[in-house]
Amino acid sequence: MSTEKQMDQIIDNWLESTNDSPHSAPLTVARVMSRVPQTRQRRTWWPLFLRGRGAGTPQATPEPGSGPESSVAVSGRSPTLTGSTRTMFSPAKIIAAGAVLAAVSALLIVQPFDRAEDPAPAIVVPATEASPLAEARQLHTATALGDGRVLVIGGKSPLDGADTHAIATAEMWNPATGEFAPAGTMAEARYGHTSTHLADGRVLVLGGYGDDSSWLDSVEVWDPETGEFSSAGSLGVGRHAHSATLLPDGRVLVLGGYGGEWEWLSSAEIWDPETETFTPTGDLAEARWEHDAVLLPDGRVLVSGGAHTITPITLLEVWDPESGTFAPAGELEQGRTAHTTTVLADGRALIAAGSPGGEPWEVASVEIWDPETSSVLAGDPLEAARTDHSATLLPSGDVLILGGTESSGADLPAELWDQETEL
Fold it and tell me: What is the pTM assigned to this prediction?
């Protein structure tokens, strides 16, 4: 079956489940596929689809930081495009739009809507109609805001060549116009950092790598009221390629990465939005970078994958907010980096694909972690091995796997993990 026919099948299945939902409008396919070129002779398929129909006016945007139970985590990674980016969206609707020609990226935009009130909920922005970033960048972050805009922060430029530099500027993508506009300048240029959308609407920027060949301990906050950055404390340890997880109480758990005294880090610390200070918490059993850290429904944080040598880590760890410590939580059969971890509706975690750290450079394996037993079961592998892909939890409970990279440059099909059959 061709890639376009596979995507048609996935969209049809999703449309059927989505259109039956009381919180969704009927959707039609506007455009199925768009090839987004990449460097390093790698190619990725990204979908451009979904357009609504109906009558009325848009529903008000929900408050930012509505929590993991009402969000869809879209984990998009690419070593040549966005570095490691995780964006939280409302689950009401997903529209994928290829954009950002200067850096050739892909945006996933989600707008809340009501079946009875929203006349045309979807926004379709083909890559050919989207304005470019003012400056091409990679290893930046892209954060979806509560009003549908996307804030792109920092990064590294140019995309190719030895004379690279860190970027201090931020740009805002407006879904109403499909254009980017300046959105402030950080005090310190950086890439390999994290950006976290806070409950109060601000965006927290942590760590990263600077132009002086050092990892940064500086922390800055972007304010939506002023459109400017300001200092918000300092990390206990400078780090990059770390993770930052928003906790239910508004604090942010920062863990792992590379930094300090030229070492992989096992340390973790918590940023408090009230005091803008960090407090150390327990250490990981295994230092790691390029890992995933996802919030579980019970408030704990699951840490998967990553590496501190050539071979990726198999040990899973869980951070407990009550004790402030990490505990072993099972073993992956396949250690991996550049993978995705998706928390399912029943609280389990789907860990998919990634890099095993050597040839073959990509794996198709899927493993499912059970929070009740801390056990890991092997799932049916993906059709295509891949790294740096995205995994999106759909309102139906299925998981949509998109894009990624594959060392031979082959086109990668979109794939759907079915929550009922677990295939």
Answer: 0.74
